[in-house]
Amino acid sequence: MPTRSSDVLVIGGGVNGLACAARLAAAGCKVVLLETTGKVGGGAGEREFAPGFRAPALAHLTQGLDSRMVDGMGLARHGLVFHPPLATTVVSATGDHLVVRGGQTTGPDAAAWAALQAKLSAFARVLAPFRQMPPPRLSGQNRWPGLARQALGIRTLGRANLRELLRMILINVHDVAEDELTDDRLKGLLAFDATLGAWLGPRSPNSLILYLDRLARGEGSLLPKGGMAALAAALGRAAESAGVRVRTTAAVQQVLVEGGRAVGVLLADGEEIRSGLVVSAIHPRTTFHGLVGAAALDAGFYRATGHIRSRGGAAKLHLALRDAPDFRGADLRSRLVIAPSSEVVEAAFNPVKYGEVPDSPVLEAILPSAHEPGQAPEGAHVLSAIVQYAPHAPRAGLSAARAALLEAALGVLEAHAPGLRGLVSHADLLMPQDIEARFGMVGGNWHHGELAVEQMLFNRPQFGAAHYSTPVDGLWLAGAGSHPGGGINGAAGWNAAGALLEARA
Amino acid sequence: MIHDAIVIGAGHNGLVAACYLARAGMKVCVVEKNDWIGGAAVSRELYPGFTYSNCSYVSSLFRPEIMRDLELPKHGLQILPYEGGAVFQQGGGYLGMFRDHDANRREFARHSRRDAEAYDIYARDILRFCRFIRPMLMRTPPDPSSLRPRDLSELLWLGKQMGALSERMRARMVQFWTMSIADFLDEYFESPVIKGYLAVSAIIGTALGPMSPGSAYVLLHHYMGDVDGNVGAWGFARGGMGAITRALTDSLKAAGGEVRTGQGVERIDVTGGRASGVVLANGDVLRARRVISNMDVKRTFLRHVDEAVLPGEFVRRVKTFKIRGSSGKLNIALDSAPVFPALPEGAPNVRGDLHFTDSIERMERGYDDWKAGRFSRDPFQDVMIPTMIDPTMVPPGKHFMSCFVQYAPPKIEGRDWTDADRDAFRDTCLNQIETYSPGFKDRVLHVEVRTPRELEAEVGLTEGNIFQGELTFDQLLFNRPVPGYAQYRSPIRDLWMCGSSTHPGGGVMGAPGRNAAAEVLREAGMKRGMRDAYAVL
Amino acid sequence: MTTLGHFRTPLLQTPFHPRTAAANVLSRWGPWGGYMAALCFGDVDMEYTAIRNAASVYDLCPMVKYRIAGRDAAAYLNRLTLRNAATLPVGAVHYTAWCDDDGKLLDDCTLFRNGPDDFLICCQERHLPWLLDSAEGFDVQVAEVTQDIAALSLQGPCSASVLAAAGFDVEALKPFRMARFAFAAGEVTISRTGFTGDLGYELWIDPALALPLWDRLMTAGAPWGIRPIGSDALNLARIEAGFIITNLDFVPAHQALREDRPRSPLEMGLGWMIDWDKGHFTGRQALLAEKQAGSAWALVGLDIPGNVSAEGSILYHDKRTEAGFVTAAAWSPALKASIALAQVKARNLPGGNLWVEIYALRELQYVKLMLPVTVVERPFFNPPRRRATPAGRV
Predict the structure, then answer these.
(1) Per residue in B214-259, pLDDT tens?
(2) Domains, chain C, ranges and CATH?
(3) What whole-number distance in Å separates Cα of residue A319 and Cα of residue A365?
(4) Are the C-beta atoms of B358 and B342 separated by less than 8 Å?
(5) How far apart are CA A220 and CA B241, in angstroms?
(6) Is residue A1 very low, low, confident or very high in pLDDT (cuts 50, 70, 90)?
(7) Which residues 6+ apart lie within 8 Å of A372 measured at CB?
(8) What is the CATH number that goes with domain A3-38+248-309+445-504?
(9) Are C252 and C100 in contact (CB under 8 A)?
(10) Mean pLDDT of all residues in chain B?
(11) What is the pLDDT of residue A497?
(12) Percent of chain C topping pLDDT 90
């Protein structure tokens, strides 16, 4: 088999893989990126799920792309343009909707919401820098000046806010909603946004920090012009123009380890590619269990990889609609959230703990076709929704659970947009297992491992591999499974490239 | 007459604080609303000839340093270790716990050979966490927002404790403190019944389910005690839990202090910005140089202090302090020992804790009921028959059975408990026991049922929360009960807190009372007369 | 009522119990791995003498045994243990050990290769979770077989003669090799291994045949004065041989409550086992780092003046600063010396000036001794007959 060599092989052409590859290439490394599927972008992409209907393949909005990546890769230059930020409409079954734009809203809690958002945003601001650096170590080997700067940043909150931060850092979002708000619509929204993509309910301790992380990523939900495919295309172009050689349909079967060092990869078709370094931007469990294998890793480490919790609790729904749905007058160009109260969010989580399907899921829906033409045939619409919660290992079996959740989701939608069911010409629901099969995200968790406090920072994805390097010399991690996690963001990949370059220097 | 200190509430923490202050030379008076002493650590004759531990029912956490300082053994306190335990499985099986290591391993191996050995590694890890946290129980939490030398040096001390661990252990401990017990146990065990048994300590007394993050810490809270050096072991107080408060009362009297029962406090007097005494329900006024409240933080400040003299932010935080009750209790007099057909003849397990929830899932579903404002339809019960070991509580051959039950919400679907609710709750629990012990109900002579409603009404625990406030991180350490007021002081000068609402929290531990006394004496410039936490070798 | 009653007998009896119980005139038993083990049958001095002078029988059943079988068995063991299991010939045995990720010892063991894909681990402690964890990703089956194999250790200069008299010709069997012999309706496996540092063999058999084997050996060995020995006598012999025992000379990392207690193979004098070139094994990186940075501890053999055993004593450098502690000690009848195994802080090793502080109990009164010690080579006692092949007949 022909052996080609390069400085760095990056496995996985998702956002993080592209970000990492681009940064390395820009720094002068000879980088080859290997992507299993036919195109790059990972969770950011598009799929024609019914003739003439195109839907975001997985992610349907971005919530704060890493600014270093956007600037460093020159994504704007490569064609990335966003629609104006989407407002959020908390959709009520009675038409009593509430529109929320960041800290601004109306209704009885307008002032309380603004005050809460201001407080949480202040916390998020001092925590945000941690996203753009490698996790601190629980040892003396830290870059102390940088950490001291972050600590001072936290001190600038002032004494009262610092105490408040320390009280709230691990609190559950339900209690915050109860303490600070009276309007069930806002409580529901807060609970929903905090737990979006997580495997926990709003009453679970440690849930508010996920909301802080959401705020720290950047404000506003953004939809790229041209859809998520345009984002993927821009990332791909930017990476290639930085010098990355992108190879699609190149499925990696094994990371080659010789003398305790990663020296390249073996592709499924038998091709062997040698390189100085191997960077994996795919799921850490797939990396260690699937590509590296037990024989090259310590037993304790290998077992800990198996313990990475990666339960996906969200399903993805795509509906082809013959006509525009009517959510009792809600703005179809907004982010539509159906989460009537924090209790309803919690109740939707209860059954998935036991592998069951909720009767009344909560969801976030957008209509890409309401923003620009080309997503659906003239006059028709596409609805893309994240439906929570969905069991990652349904007891009733995948297809029965999928059917049950689809029925439940359509029931919820119908209750909020009467007549919607009659407009559906095609429905497509991706359960966590489907997401795993299609995107390689173990358990269907889009963070490549739950974003939960016990899997953050120095414990992400696991001790011994939390600083992008791994126990195998020359093998690095750059995916969402690493700090600071996933979503369409790129920080993990960008950080990984930084760590790798620093180690090289 | 002016007392040096008035302590409100003759529960164990109030008495511990009073004892230390009296021994240091203060003139101390403890006032108690009930006609009996003990708070939630009581022995009461609720059926002729039967002594009930009708609130707390087992002892482990009570600090040996305090027992020694206050000479409680001299005043009659004896702690008896108990023997084993069992979880009964649906379908007639059981998992037994044995004090003998080899017997226990072989018993666990019946359910999983792997788990039987993994248990040793698990126990080692838990013990490591306990060793780390135990020295913190007997210290005042530092205020991390403060730059005072004392706070900084305490923070430094904490840092040094951390520094003694390996980096791997530190990372592991952060995980343990934040994760759910269900996830934590999954990393060690495969058998549902073994996991169900071990998850118990993570939910007792809390408004969390075993799948809630943060529940693993609660487990630690139940494991950091010991019986005569056996860390994590539990025992009975001979004569019932009231033996602890009885010994404390005797110790207090020996030191010159007094306890007045049947004297509920109406109001804490605040004059010129400082606490100056209390007004009793009967109108009497007691004057004091300082007032120390053993009531929970909500009761103290929302019921007995004029809100106008308190800072607004403090009141807000007290109002949002989480103190949701999650448990109830059945106290039962039995005509004869119950029989559990699943157990082998003569098995020692009945002399320990008995459970009927054989999986984490059943416990979590019980929690789902609580969240929806219902008591659990299939509750978790921690059943103990202390009279299997303690011969002093009931006539020979008879038994007292204590059933701690989760989950029971403070309110039923938003409204107050009714007597009908209480009876339904009782029947649910009795029927569950009857399932595993046929004929059990025929042995019952008397049942006392305590839902959160009764706990609050009688013991004064707001919402029936046995820990005087939930044990989640937002209410632990420097956050307990309110950030900025975690050092036993309140916003009002000379008004102190010493109950379980303060660090390190609930359980019959005595540490909050002891730590509060240490702070009072420090401020008064008096000798503390107490041991530091035992050195960990 | 169910009939389970294991709680009534927390300690199991070995298949040899009817014989060992009859011989144990002192009823001195101790727990060992969940079994009753004889500490001494009647006279520890005579039992020791049997080991060094004639032939002794020791009930090895409580040793924990795991069968490792499957296509990846050798690869699995290579990742698990320190030595190269792939190069161990079928029919051979080696002494090896294994570590956790931090390179700290979990246990040592004898590893028997019964077939190309069939091994037996024989060790002191139970490790099923770790052995199963280590099996993830390998095509291998791990099963504890402690109860399925009865084992006897036959040790002493006359042991080959006793075996010959019993009908097992082991004269040509080299050290660390094994052979199979027909016995009764089954067979017995005999390996030339042992824990006494003397000529000796270990016999492995179906528990159903345990008593006939015992009887055969005792009858055949009678002319040589064969006798059963307890753990006390064996312990004396193993100290003379310089062997270490898990949980006596080091704490297995999985059991250590205190993080500073576990020791690496380099620290326990087992560095010679490590095959750095065989490929990855658990703990390799940590051990490599330790090899480069230097170890904190060293296991040494000590020669101590006088005749007082130094059990449980603390070592000092220059009589002042603590430098380590004794893990095993005895007056050696074979060497006529007070010997000890000790863990010493590596920085105190060069230059000597090591002292031992002994508290000796004499007629209810402790006498304190501060004695200079000499670090000596292990094994302390190493007679040529131990290795001689063909084995000497007496």
Answers:
(1) 999 999 888 888 777 777 788 899 999 999 999 999 999 999 999 9
(2) 11-61+149-229 (3.30.1360.120), 296-376 (2.40.30.110)
(3) 10
(4) no
(5) 57
(6) very low
(7) A83, A225, A226, A227
(8) 3.50.50.60
(9) no
(10) 95
(11) 98
(12) 96
B473: nearest CB among A164, A170, A204? A170
CA distance B476 to B502: 8
Beta-carbon neighbour count of residue A112 at 10 Å? 16
CB contact under 8 A, A206 and B320: no
Mean pLDDT throughout B144-153?
94
Q: Which residues contact C314 (CB under 8 A, 6 or more apart)?
A: C322, C324, C325, C326, C356, C357
Rounded-to-integer distance, Cα B329 and Cα B93, Å: 26
Torsion of CA B220, B225, B231, B232, to 10 degrees: -50
Degrees to nearest 5, angle at CA B330 with B329 and B332: 150
- Asked if residues C88 and C94 have their Cβ atoms less than 8 Å apart, the reply is yes
Is pLDDT of B327 > 60?
Answer: yes
In degrees to the nearest 10, what's the CA dihedral of C233, C238, C239, C242?
170
Hey, which CATH number is domain A45-59+81-102+220-225+311-441, 3.30.980, 3.90.660, 1.10.3860, 1.20.1550? Answer: 3.90.660
Give pLDDT tens digits for B401-432. Answer: 999 999 999 999 999 999 999 999 999 999 99
| Secondary structure (H, E, C), B196-264 | HHHHHHHHCCCCCCCCCCCHHHHHHHHHCCEECCEECCCEEECCCCHHHHHHHHHHHHHCCCEEECCCC
Mutate to test the interface with C, among B83, B94, B97, B102 (most CBs of C within 10 A): B102
What is the dihedral sign for C-alpha A154, A159, A164, A166?
Answer: positive
Amino acid at residue number A473:
D
- List pLDDT tens digits, range C126-147: 999 999 999 999 999 999 999 9
* Contacts of range B387-393, beta carbons closer than 8 Å, 24 or more positions apart: B388/B337, B388/B350, B388/B351, B389/B80, B389/B82, B389/B83, B389/B236, B389/B351, B390/B80, B390/B236, B390/B238, B390/B239, B390/B240, B392/B51, B392/B238, B392/B239, B393/B43, B393/B50, B393/B51, B393/B239, B393/B240
Q: Is the pLDDT of residue C262 over 50?
A: yes
Q: Is the pLDDT of residue A2 over 50?
A: no
Residue B536 confidence (pLDDT): 67
- Across B105-114, average pLDDT: 96
Distance of CA B142 to the CA centre of its chain: 23
| B353-355: strand order across its sheet | B94-97, B85-88, B353-355, B380-384, B399-406, B327-334, B444-450
Which domain covers residue B188, as residue numbers?
A: 113-201+216-226
ipTM of this complex: 0.97
Kindly state the tokens that stand for A265. 């990869």
Using the structure block, give the residue that is written with the tokens 């919660």. A389
Chain A residues in contact with C285 by the CB 8 A cut-off are 260, 298, 471
pLDDT number for residue A5: 66
SS (H, E, C) B447-473: EEEECHHHHHHHHCCHHHCCCCCCCCH
Task: Count up the domains in chain B and report the number.
Answer: 2
Nearest-CA residue of chain C relative to A288?
A: C137
Chain A residue with the nearest C-alpha to that of B317: A179
Residue C233 has φ and ψ, to the nearest 5°, of -65, -40
Chain C residues lying within 8 Å of B348, measured CB to CB? 7
Residue B266 placed within a domain: yes
**Chain C contacts of A297, Cβ < 8 Å?**
280
What span, in angstroms and rounded, lies between the C-alpha atoms of C36 and A383?
71
Which of A307, A453, A464 is the closest to B187 by Cβ? A307
Rounded CA separation B409/C332 (Å): 70
Locate the chain B residue with the closest alpha carbon to A138: B167
